[in-house]
């Protein structure tokens, strides 16, 4: 993955979230996405913290947008790896987020691991 692709994906992803545009957010994810976040148990009721598939992710993101109507992300850094990127951004409730994403051959987000720390 090159830096230009990673930066473009990150900026489009942040923009979609800041517009609260669920369709635009989901456009970035593979059908068989695996998503793990500390927010999953509270927002989805799944104690494992992991969601499988875009359908479950859609319900989770919808609930997140409803729960945090003032949600706004500030992108701080984009780190690139081999078929992966990490977004470091200011998230909800004064949290800093580090979100590691792997990208499949179609350029869609396939796996996600989200980490938070209180600022």
Set down the secondary structure blueprint.
Elements: H1 3-18, H2 22-26, E1 29-36, H3 40-44, E2 50-52, H4 54-67, E3 74-80, E4 84-90, E5 95-103, E6 109-118
Parallel strand pairs: 1-6
Antiparallel strand pairs: 1-2, 3-4, 4-5, 5-6
Describe it.
The protein is an alpha+beta fold. The chain has a single domain (3-118), classed as Nuclear Transport Factor 2, Chain: A. 34% of the residues lie in helices and 37% in strands. The chain contains four helices and six strands; from the N terminus they run H-H-E-H-E-H-E-E-E-E. Strands 2-1-6-5-4-3 form a six-stranded mixed beta sheet, covered by helices on one side. Strand 4 and strand 5 (95-103) form a beta hairpin. The longest helix has 16 residues, at 3-18. The radius of gyration is 13 Å and the shape is globular. The termini are far apart. The mean pLDDT is 97.
**Shape category:** globular
Report the oligomer.
Answer: single chain
Instruction: Give the SSE order as H and E letters.
Output: HHEHEHEEEE
**What CATH architecture label applies?**
Roll
Rg calc: 13 Å
Task: Return residue spans where pLDDT drops below 50 for at least 5 consecutive residues.
Answer: none
Give the N-terminus to C-terminus distance in angstroms. 30 Å
Observed structural traits:
single chain; 119 residues; alpha+beta; Nuclear Transport Factor 2, Chain: A; six-stranded mixed β-sheet; 4 helices; globular
Question: Brief description of this entry?
Answer:
The chain has four helices and six strands. By secondary structure, the chain is of the alpha+beta class.
């Amino acid at each position: 993955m090159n830096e230009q692709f990673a930066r473009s994906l990150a900026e489009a992803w942040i923009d979609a979230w800041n517009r609260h545009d669920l369709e635009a957010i989901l456009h970035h994810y593979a059908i068989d996405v695996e998503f793990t976040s500390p927010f999953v148990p509270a927002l989805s009721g799944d104690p494992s913290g992991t969601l499988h598939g875009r359908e479950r992710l859609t319900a989770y993101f919808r609930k997140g947008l409803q729960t945090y109507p003032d949600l706004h992300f500030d992108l701080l850094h984009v780190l690139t790896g081999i078929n992966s990127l990490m977004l470091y951004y200011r998230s909800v409730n004064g949290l800093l987020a580090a979100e590691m994403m792997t990208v499949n051959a179609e350029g869609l987000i396939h796996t996600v691991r989200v980490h938070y720390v209180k600022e």
